[in-house]
């Protein structure tokens, strides 16, 4: 009977949970423990919520460790004593200490970009914002430097206009899961030889800062459209209206020209805003102090006073 490969899995969001479920369904692997970020307070009620990976682990009665910082923690010593053959990470959100990497035969990461492009914590956001035609997943060896390890395998998919961060995360999670399960046996056996990255071609995608959520109406309609999609469903793009934050969840490209940020068309059902080149029609918005709503509801309510010629961003 073939011995199972003993793994420690590290990850946090839905993307990671999809990968973990794939490993759990494969009889080749024994998940000894899961390491995930600490539970956080979410929403207006600040309710403590388990991470997606923890939910999967608890459902399968797997030990869970949640150090605020893995390096130097008590949990690190416990994890290293478990006798794992290897580590698999996917959107974990922390660096792995060198002594942990040295304690196992292998450590690979499922990273949601086509490396060496978009190393860092927000590769899907930046791929959409920057207007990339495709996104993908790279299985790579873990090293101390962020996302700089040798590449085991890659797979890609087209980025469509209807895609946003949420939909692309779901697509890439499945692609990453399947790619990992397809290539991990060959990697462990030595049949698949990892390839070094070209570090000179590396680009970076750090976590989105609050300043980057702000829309720049001077950019083209396509760039503004991509920015909105690249912030949806989190952290959500915003602009200003009468000096107050105004969130824009969804929009679509449309025809029209005018001063950037200016309303150039308003009906009971549509609100069209000019950009530096072209225009966008708002679809789902959230005025300051109000819930998220369809633009038709906004125009029938607090947005009734808006007129053509009024401007966002001021």
From TrEMBL:
Residues 7-183 form the Formyl transferase N-terminal domain. InterPro entries: Fmt, Formyl_trans_C, Formyl_trans_C_sf, Formyl_transf_N, Formyl_transf_N_sf, Formyl_transferase-like_C_sf, GART_AS, Met-tRNA-FMT_C. The keyword Translocase does not apply. SUPFAM superfamilies: FMT C-terminal domain-like, Formyltransferase. It catalyses: L-methionyl-tRNA(fMet) + (6R)-10-formyltetrahydrofolate = N-formyl-L-methionyl-tRNA(fMet) + (6S)-5,6,7,8-tetrahydrofolate + H(+). (6S)-5,6,7,8-tetrahydrofolate binds at residues 113-116. The keyword RNA-binding does not apply. Its EC number is 2.1.2.9. It comes from the Bacteria. Keywords: Protein biosynthesis, Transferase. GO terms for molecular function: methionyl-tRNA formyltransferase activity. It holds the Pfam family Formyl_trans_N. Gene3D superfamilies: Formyl transferase, C-terminal domain, Formyl transferase, N-terminal domain. Residues 207-302 form the Formyl transferase C-terminal domain. HAMAP family: Formyl_trans. Belongs to the Fmt family. Attaches a formyl group to the free amino group of methionyl-tRNA(fMet). The formyl group appears to play a dual role in the initiator identity of N-formylmethionyl-tRNA by promoting its recognition by IF2 and preventing the misappropriation of this tRNA by the elongation apparatus. This is Methionyl-tRNA formyltransferase.
